[in-house]
Amino acid sequence: MATRSYLTYDAEELHDKLTRNPFSYLHVINPDGMAAERTERGTVPYFELVRAAYDEWREREWLVATEAPTYAVYRQTIGTTAVTGIVALMDLAAYADRRLRLHEQTLEAREALFATFLDTVGFNAEPVLMARPEGHPGQAELNGLVADLTAQRPDFDFTTADGIRHTAWWVDASEALEWTDRLNAIPALYLADGHHRSASSHRVATEHSGDLGRQGLLSFVIPEAELIILGYHREVRDLPNGPADWLPRLAALPDVASVTPCEPSEDRPLTTGAFRIHHGTGSWRVELNPGGADRIDGGWLGEQVLAAFWGINDPRNDNRLRYIPGAEPRSAWWPRVTQHPDRCVFELAPVGTEQLKFVSDAGGTFPPKSTWIEPKLRSGLFIYQFDEHG
């Protein structure tokens, strides 16, 4: 039933899922996917169709609510890597008073659109990912609760077609108060993924301050040590000249310590302050001089190279710039480099957890597309309906 974001499916895959699996949650979030006439996506009538499809699933008892408010512990396993966290409802007052620390700016239009969606459908089916810091008060006790519960038989345990294993344990509602006390002892959480959903939920909470059901944010809270942060690379297109023209300029920048040729798949890992450049004529490793924790490689590259060399001043909207998630295999983007002499890829190192916390604590923000953070959570696996429990 649970599904990846519909944005990850192309038209053919989406049609295949809708045709072959009547139980896919895609039927809820794409309510007219099999209809002869389509309703414009992103409109209130479309969102009303989503709610109607959801209500139909409730009537068929394909979705059954817990008898009382409670928590779940959820584990996602990819290969040998497992991430275990707590599915919970965060009071959105924490968003307003910065007990939820952010590191990305949001786009007003997207924020407003998703707020309308939430307000219309009346539920949230995608937890946002948050990290609890190492050494927080009550950490040992909370870890103990998680360990005791996960030693028991899970309530569900299945593997999806992409090889990812999903396991969950429900907390007995009679024990939920102890979990609440332990979670409330955490001074602050760090929002890892879901900035637009969080901002939109806060907007809905503010507009409906008297509606308690709209004051919560469905969240997945994991230890910071289990946060998986990958790089987010830049592909630059329509270059006016090749590396022979602009590599010497890059090497002459004050922050650059060295530029050396390298193999495309060199074994040396990338860490903050180092990145690789790939072009059809070769690959190079760039090392920067040591910098402060507030220097983000993607931001430095954007200002000192992309804007200064090629006038890419609007990284969100310039068609010459594409972003490549760190989870995307090299084989997916490498042909674009070798087959197009007017393109290159800047392969960036992951942002460290400490750097993420430093920027968040300072109230700063990262440049667009600075982090690819996992785990990515499936839609429909956990649902918070605003009016389900009083």
Report on this model:
With 390 residues, the protein is of the alpha+beta class. It has three domains: 6-59, no CATH class; 72-227 and 373-385, Conserved hypothetical protein from pyrococcus furiosus pfu- 392566-001, ParB domain; 232-349. The chain is 32% helix and 24% strand. The chain has twelve helices and 18 strands. An eight-stranded mixed β-sheet has the order 3-8-5-9-2-1-7-6. The chain has a six-stranded antiparallel β-sheet with strand order 12-14-13-16-11-15, with helices on both faces. The longest helix is centred in the first third of the chain and has 16 residues, at 44-59. The relative contact order is 0.16. The mean pLDDT is 93.
Layout of strands and helices, then pairs:
Layout: H1 11-20, H2 26-29, H3 44-59, E1 72-78, E2 81-91, H4 93-96, E3 100-101, H5 108-121, E4 123-124, E5 128-132, H6 139-150, E6 156-159, E7 165-170, H7 176-184, E8 189-193, H8 195-207, E9 216-223, E10 228-230, E11 232-236, H9 243-251, E12 256-262, E13 274-279, E14 282-288, H10 297-310, E15 321-325, H11 330-339, E16 344-348, H12 353-361, E17 372-374, E18 384-385
Parallel strand pairs: 3-8, 5-9
Antiparallel strand pairs: 1-2, 1-7, 2-9, 4-18, 5-8, 6-7, 10-17, 11-15, 11-16, 12-14, 13-14, 13-16
